Amino acid sequence: MTRFLFFAERWLWLAFLFLLPFQSRIILWQSDWIFIEWHAISLFVWDIALISLFAVAFWRGWRPFDGAKINRALITLGALSLCSVAWAINVPIALYATIRLVEGILLFWYVRRVIHENMLAPSIIAFSVAMIFQAMLGIGQFFVHHDFRLWILGEPSISPTMHGVAVFFSLTGERVMRAYGTFPHPNIFAAFLTASLWGIAWLWRHTSSLRMRIMWLCTAMVLGVALATTFSRTIVAVLIAAITVLMVNVWRRQSYMKYVFSVIVAMLIFASIVWPATIARLKISGGDEAVAMRVEYAKDALYSGNGFFGKINLFGVGAGNFTYWLADAVPNMPRYWYQPAHNIFLLAYSEIGLIGLLIFIGFLVLQFRTNASIEIKALALIFVIVGLTDHFFWTLAQGQMLWWIVLGLLTKHDILGHHGQN
What are the CB-based long-range contacts (under 8 Å, 24+) for 186-190? Predict the structure, then answer.
């Protein structure tokens, strides 16, 4: 029985990683007649794997809480989110947001205390196999300009002419649809691709087989092209900056040069093929709608404290309730304008208050002080910077799980090779 539970836990973990990129789910409840991602309660297929994993791990003796300072901070964060349900405008969504936060915290604890180095390669492979499929799907979506009707896998219905789909105009005036994979938005697709590229870099570095190195290199090049099809400006820019720093400080002494060069060349070849779209997407101005809306959402999040304690929001408007508060505070806007603030820290402030934000920041500071590898710290820092301009690590279930996995890896001193000096 003990041996069976051991293998069950191992395979449930790998199944969770493989299923995480897919949106296959049951929508249990939604507060609007039109589906809005952050106004709905869903049960994903990977939720079932993760809940089963926690149950088996607990049966085998895993106890999440050990009294460490980091764990006390997370307990407090979860408690503040739960308390915020009392004054939330939409109670079911607040409860759901709290459950998602607790699920992410449990996942962080699991990665922190259970996942060991001998599980790293199988974990990366399970995740990357799913992401290879996602990459090919995303590349296909970009070139055929529509989805492939893989609704059973969670692929969204998308085309350049549909309202709410992420598109932009190329220099020739053509509507260019960004790739989605089976994710709710191209930016979260890009974040998953970045994490997969990071993992495959480790596999490529730690194999002596020429055949396997070529296979991983080709895989990374496909993932790089898929990343380019998302046209996610922030993630690509931050990724390039992080790679540049790593090349100067760490990777120049190791054999990552060919890997990085190959991925960048693949992305540049794709960019040259779709040059009018690439140039158009590179142009950013203060009048850009995406930039202007982010600024407005940031102001709204800071304003959310009014009516509580002057201009300071101590306890928040309720977990997952920023858009409901915004609809009350600024009525008569088009429905699609009611979006979360595109900054996870401002969202934390607006939804669970100043106290919650300070605990959240304190937790991150403690995490980055660990003696994790430089590579993992770089990946986590990429996600933190992306979190300054987007919200999916706080609001979307897939983004939340990826966020907590990467933060959990910050405590694993033997992950991805080169160690930091703290």
Answer: 186/230, 186/231, 186/232, 187/230, 187/232, 187/234, 187/235, 187/386, 187/390, 187/392, 188/392, 188/396, 188/398, 188/399, 189/134, 189/138, 189/226, 189/230, 189/232, 190/227, 190/230, 190/232, 190/235, 190/236
Mean pLDDT for the chain overall: 90
pLDDT tier, 108 (very low <50, low <70, confident <90, very high otherwise): very high
What is this structure's pTM?
0.94
What are 364-386's pLDDT values in tens digits?
A: 998 998 888 888 898 999 999 99
Strands 175-177 and 25-30: unpaired
Shortest CA distance to 112 belongs to which of 142, 70, 84?
Answer: 70
**Cα–Cα distance measured from residue 341 to residue 28, given in angstroms and rounded to the nearest whole number:** 25
Say what percent of the chain tops pLDDT 70: 92
- Percentage of residues in the chain having pLDDT higher than 90: 67
Q: How many Cα neighbours within 13 Å face the side chain of 289?
A: 6
